[in-house]
Each structure stands twice: as structure tokens, then as C-alpha cells.
Amino acid sequence: MQEKQETPSKQSSASVLKSLSDRRALPMFPGVISKLDSALNAPSVSIDEVVSILSADLNTFSRIMKSASGFRYGSQPPKDLGEAVMRLGFAETRALTFAVAYTHSFEKPKNFSMATFWMHAFVSGLAAKEISAWLYRHKKMRVCDAPTAFLLGLAHEVGCLLLDKLNDEAFGRVVDELKTSQESQASLEHKRLGTTHAVIGAALLKYWGFTDNMVMAVAGHHFPARLPLAQQPIADMVLLAESMAGYMGFDNGVDKATPGVLNGFVTERMQVIGMSEADFLRLSERIKDALAEEDWMELASSTGNT
Ligand SMILES: [Fe+2]
Ligand SMILES: [Fe+2]
Description:
By secondary structure, the protein is mainly α. It folds into two domains: 8-26 and 108-304, Hypothetical protein af1432, CATH 1.10.3210.10; 28-105, no CATH class. Helices cover 65% and strands 0% of the residues. It has 16 helices and no strands. The protein has helices at 13-22, 31-41, 47-54, 58-67, 81-103, 114-139, 146-155, 158-166, 168-180, 185-193, 197-207, 212-219, 232-247, 264-273, 277-293, 296-304. Helix 6 crosses helix 13. The longest helix is centred in the middle third of the chain and has 26 residues, at 114-139. 43% of the residues are buried. The protein binds fe (ii) ion (2 copies).
């Protein structure tokens, strides 16, 4: 009976997107990413071309310059953006551009820490990349390429930002309830809001024109077994990536995760894809190294406040 009172805050994914779109509050996919991707996917690309795309976006420009001034590259900062891109290489430049442009597309949420949220997204992105490479090396499964894996890790929780934006009071009640509830975030959202961050996030990726596999990976990242068999591995990759982030102490800021603990549901999915706990731990050690190399923490804080 009590659920009846919550009905006004319940909406389907289509109506959530429509409400946000009507309020002109639906984030656009960052143009710099689309432009960079089409340049990098062309048969040949010049540094000048990449530089002219990146220099049009101030946030990306300053981040790339900063990253290329890190300790790995000696004491001299790069003299210009071209040198910075050469130092980082196209793959790293692309990952940083994704991270910067994507994070700057959203406003600060009302109910959770943006810096915590982005850190979870970055660690999940790095983890997804490692897991997709591991699946190929050890299981001969080509789930997706590295940039796609990174982007999925980065974007898998985007629905949290949309739910917060749509109705911050209703989402705030869910966030409060999660502090003491034993229920998962997705199941509580479904009960109280009629949809979940996974479904809404997937709807946004679909609207942005992402492939069906990517959309389904986000939609099913809490329940890979409910997807068609062919799409389960990519959703498992996202689930394991975000679980690795939680295991390492980087929860999404909405729902708690206990560092150092893997829940039973995740270990079941690891068995399905044939990953042992030792494999999981080895991969998380690699993420720690990647985190130390690039100052993701600083990027999360500069984008998010708290
Ligand atoms: Fe999630
Ligand atoms: Fe997550």
C-alpha cells in the first residue's frame, strides 16, 4: 500500500528521457569525442589534425598538457599540444579526452559526491579495459576493443546522474534508504522509482547512438544472466569492472561497497566466465599501477567538487 504514495515519482525509461529532453536537461554526447574518433578511425591521421580537434576544447587541452607534464615524461613540460599528444600516444590521448569531455557534460548531482562518483567511473573504465584484454588472452573471447571497454566502464552508472536530475527528492530518498537497507541499489530504485539507473543509463546510450551491445551491457550490468547469451560476456565485463572498483574502495557514491569483499553474486558470474579470485586480484593490482601512473584522483576532484 505504501508504494502507492510513491507513484508520482515512478516513470519508465522512455518518459524519463522525454521529461529531461523537454526540460532541455538531457546531456549531449560530447562533440570532441565524436570528432576525435572519426579522425582516429580514418585510414591515416596526422598529429596536426588531432591537435586542432583537441585544442577546440579547453578542458581537454589543459588536461592533456598536464598529463604530458607528469613525472613519466621528465622534468620539461611539453612545448605545445602536439608534443603532449606525441608523448602520451593516441590511445592514452583518446582515453583522457573521453574522460575529460564526458565528465564535463554533467552538472553536480544533489544527492551524492560527484568526485566519488567519477572516481568509481574512472576505476571501472580502467578495470573494464584490463578485463576485456584478459578475456581475449585467456578465454579467446573478443568482447569489445579497449576504447569501448573504457567508455563502458566510464559510462555504466550515468543513469544515477539522470535519476538525480529528474527528481532529486525522490532519488534522495532512495540514496538515504540505501544507507541502511540490505537491498541493492537497482532493486530499491525499481521499487521506489519504477526504473533503475542501469535502464535509464542504457536509454541515454541508445539515444547517443551507441551499439546494441554497448546499450545492453549497461542495461544488464547488474543482471547479466537476464540478457541473451551472446550479450552476457560484455555485461559481465562491466559488472566485474565495477565490482573491482568497489573491491578497491571506490564505490559509486550512491550505494556502499565493502572494500576487499566480493559478493556471492559476483563470484557466481566469475565462475561463468572462468575467472578465479586469484585472477581478479592480479587484475586489480594492475589497476592500482594504472591509477598511480595517471592522476585520475585529481581529475575526479577537479571535475566534481564533493
Ligand atoms: Fe550500477
Ligand atoms: Fe558501478
